[in-house]
Design goal:
The chain is mostly beta strands. Helix content is 0%, strand content 64%.
Length: 113
């Protein structure tokens, strides 16, 4: 078995001067990947963007039952962080009111002659 964990984080800060005014954009991206073995892994990704006032989540489980076949279970969801919003993340009420989201199961099977 080859279990391992990968953790990464990125923080990007951009200052801009425009005729309409100045602003600073901050994007934070965080990733955690855990490989159970060579055929199963879990990936969690979270990104925050202050300019669009939102946080996005992505969870993906990948399983290879046999070589050539794949099973993916994916959950995506985005939430507002806008201060005046009634359902603002991280308030628990926001979890039931995502800006967008999807739950997808994808199965790939290789056909051989």
């Amino acid at each position: 078995m080859t279990k391992h964990v990968i953790v990464s984080t990125d923080l990007i800060r951009t200052g801009a001067q425009l005729p309409a005014g100045a602003f600073t954009a901050i994007v934070s991206a965080n990733r955690l990947e855990y490989d159970f073995d060579t055929r199963a892994s879990l990936l969690a990704f979270v990104q925050y963007d202050n300019a669009s006032e939102r946080v996005d989540f992505n969870l993906r489980f990948h399983w290879i039952p046999v070589i050539g076949d794949d099973v993916f279970v994916v959950w995506n969801s985005g939430y507002t962080t806008e201060p005046l919003s009634r359902f603002r993340f991280p308030d628990t009420g926001a979890l039931a009111r995502p800006l967008n989201g999807a739950f997808v199961v994808k199965v790939v099977h290789r056909l051989t002659p």
